[in-house]
Specification:
Elements: H1 2-22, E1 30-35, H2 42-56, E2 61-66, H3 71-77, E3 87-92, H4 93-99, E4 120-128, E5 134-136, E6 151-154, H5 160-174, E7 182-185, H6 188-197, E8 202-203, E9 208-209, H7 220-227, E10 233-235, H8 239-249, E11 254-258, E12 270-281, H9 287-307, H10 316-320, H11 330-339
Parallel strand pairs: 1-2, 1-3, 6-7, 6-8
Antiparallel strand pairs: 3-12, 4-9, 4-12, 5-10, 11-12
Helix pairs in contact: 1-2, 2-9, 5-8, 6-7, 9-11
Length: 356
């Protein structure tokens, strides 16, 4: 079924690509497959619009968005050598890092084998909060420890932040496990509806941020929870727990405190963690193609902010935050130097990888 959906998604992407190409004069244009996330996720729609804009602007390279079961699937696909020279992967800093833990007792439920590949980053696209805090309609659930023994709805195991990261924080931060708690892995829409219906006590829900902390994304699931006519309570993850998880796994989750009112019905400051979403490639990916993709995104970014909600957080700072001399693709770095943006990366903590 999954393979069928991916084939159908790819066919749909090809149709969109051909339709967009027919609207502009024919010219040579390289195509790179872009692995994304399940149908309905924000990046899938946003990057399809980006593909159309790249075609219409006659960029040397365009992307071909492809639906996948999630970022964990994308990580496993990095082991497929056939993808190394022509695929762009939607991924996250902390997922790349946890790939080095693949096959261990801590990770084998999600990542069956080790993925010890040092991805080369092209650009950052969002800072994601889902999986690193929880929501409930029950005012008696005040801390994550209170979730032990309760019914908790999380995202799919194939989803990094919705499913995998939430389990990491529950188990290794608070001792809340599948052995002592009713933990359910569902799609974002299903887990949201469970909380609304009272079939679960707490759940994960999403938000997006960016390095300047001026723009915030409030996606559909959180808006659905807001629309229910009763108070919504947030359960945060403390900085010391973020530090504990980072120390154990060598991850770079970033602790943040959201001021009251940042999220819907949020009446108190909220401690959370975010991980950083990136477009990344294998080191064997073409240097020229990496350069051209970054240049196109940099030039189209301001326009994309008007075309899709996810892109409203776009900025040069978001593109380079977390990049370093060690993790950036050489072609991407060349583009940032030409744009005059490269020095901006020095303001932010770099994404690091474990030793092999």
């Amino acid at each position: 079924m999954v393979k069928h959906r991916i084939r159908m998604s790819l066919a749909g992407g090809l149709m969109a690509l051909l339709t967009a190409m027919s609207a502009v004069p024919v010219h040579a244009q390289e195509v790179a497959t872009l692995l994304l996330c399940p149908f309905g996720c924000g990046p899938l729609a946003g990057d399809t619009i980006l593909m159309n804009q790249m075609i219409q602007s006659r960029a040397p390279v365009t992307i071909l968005p492809q639906e996948t079961p999630g970022y964990v699937y994308n990580l496993r696909e990095m082991l497929n050598k056939k993808r190394w020279k022509q695929t762009v992967f939607s991924t996250e800093d902390t997922l790349i890092q946890l790939g080095f833990w693949g096959g261990t007792p801590e990770m084998k439920e999600f990542i069956a084998e080790q993925v010890p590949i040092r991805f080369k980053l092209l650009y950052g696209e969002a800072w994601w909060g889902q999986g690193k805090f929880f929501v409930t309609y029950n005012p008696n659930l005040k801390t994550v420890s209170d979730l032990k023994g309760k019914r908790v709805s999380l995202g799919l195991r194939s989803q990094s932040d919705w499913g995998l990261f939430s389990r990491v924080f529950l188990e290794y931060g608070y001792g809340v496990t599948t052995k002592n708690t009713d933990i359910r892995h569902l799609t974002p829409s299903a887990l949201t509806q469970q909380l609304i219906d009272g079939a679960t006590d707490a759940a994960v829900t999403p938000f997006g941020a960016e390095p300047n902390m001026k723009e915030w994304l409030i996606p559909g699931p959180l808006r659905q929870l807001e629309a229910v006519n009763k108070p919504l309570y947030y359960i945060g993850v403390e900085k010391e727990i973020v530090d504990k998880v980072n120390k154990k796994f060598g991850t770079t989750f970033l602790p943040l405190t959201l001021p009251a009112g940042t999220l819907p019905k949020q009446t108190q400051p909220l401690s959370v963690a975010v991980n950083r979403g990136y477009k990344a490639v294998h080191p064997d990916f073409s240097e020229q193609a990496a350069h051209d993709i970054v240049m196109s995104v940099a030039k189209l970014g301001p326009k994309m902010r008007q075309l899709h909600a996810l892109w409203k957080i776009w900025s040069p700072e978001l593109m380079v935050a977390g990049l370093s001399e060690e993790n950036v693709h050489p072609g991407a770095k060349r583009a940032y130097v030409e744009l005059g943006w490269w020095d901006k990366h020095k303001k932010y903590a770099a994404v690091t990888y474990p030793e092999k």
